[in-house]
Design a protein that fits this description.
The protein is built from 5 helices and 9 strands. By secondary structure, the chain is of the alpha+beta class. A hairpin with a 6-residue loop joins strand 7 and strand 8. It starts with a strand and ends in a 7-residue tail after the last strand.
């Protein structure tokens, strides 16, 4: 299992990398098939956000659904501890779900990739592409493209993912694994683009798009 640590507005020391690798070594207990773990460290320089200035996002790339957790604190090590705790809980939940499916002798194929809308809105503070870059829409899987809206400070980041059809139940499950309030997917029965989202309490909603275009 490869662990990749990268910083955004943050310097990553060798000592911290070693601490991350040691901290995340237990991931293999819950996800033995994990291929890669991406750890992104972001430093917020704004003093008004000092209590959450150190943000850490951990993403586990497995043969199943993507599992992600993030946390922010004033201390980088504390942020890592919080994010790791959330991640282990989601990994445990995914492992238990797989065990339940085996006991019921009901094995289903789990998509390797999914569409993650959070990637489209993530970190609007990122630097836009240089002037003269004509690329507008990503054309390769995993490719990210940014564009500034006119003279405004708003930057839109697009990223291309592969979408494997799934059920509403699976979409809700994967939404919980990445810790997001909504999740975009293709319904395996109707082939419609859909969004599941968290409303309140244990209530969820589903938005379906009718893609049929009339003449």
């Amino acid at each position: 299992m490869e662990i990749i640590v990268k910083g955004r507005n943050a310097e990553i020391s060798d000592r911290f990398r070693e601490h991350v690798e040691e901290k995340l070594s237990k991931i293999e207990q819950f996800a033995p098939r994990a291929q890669r773990v991406d750890v992104e460290v972001t430093h917020e320089p704004n003093r008004a956000q000092a209590d959450t200035s150190e943000k850490i996002e951990i993403t586990v790339i497995d043969k199943g659904p993507v599992i992600r957790a993030e946390a922010a604190a004033s201390d980088r090590l504390a942020s890592l501890d919080l994010a790791t705790t959330k991640l282990i809980e989601r990994l445990r939940r995914a492992r238990d779900r797989r065990k339940d499916h085996r006991r019921k002798d009901h094995v289903r194929e789990v998509p390797e990739l999914n569409i993650d809308l959070d990637e489209l809105n993530k970190d609007l503070r990122e630097k836009p592409k240089a002037d003269g870059d004509e690329e507008k829409i990503p054309t390769e899987l995993g490719q990210a493209v940014e564009k500034q809206l006119g003279d405004s400070p708003v930057i839109v980041r697009q990223k291309l993912h592969e979408a494997a059809p799934m059920s509403v139940d699976q979409a809700l499950y994967e939404m919980e694994l990445v810790g997001h309030p909504f999740f975009l997917f293709i319904d395996e029965e109707t082939k419609q683009p859909c969004v599941v989202y968290h409303r309140h309490g244990w209530t969820y909603g589903v938005i379906r798009l009718n893609t049929v275009v009339s003449d």
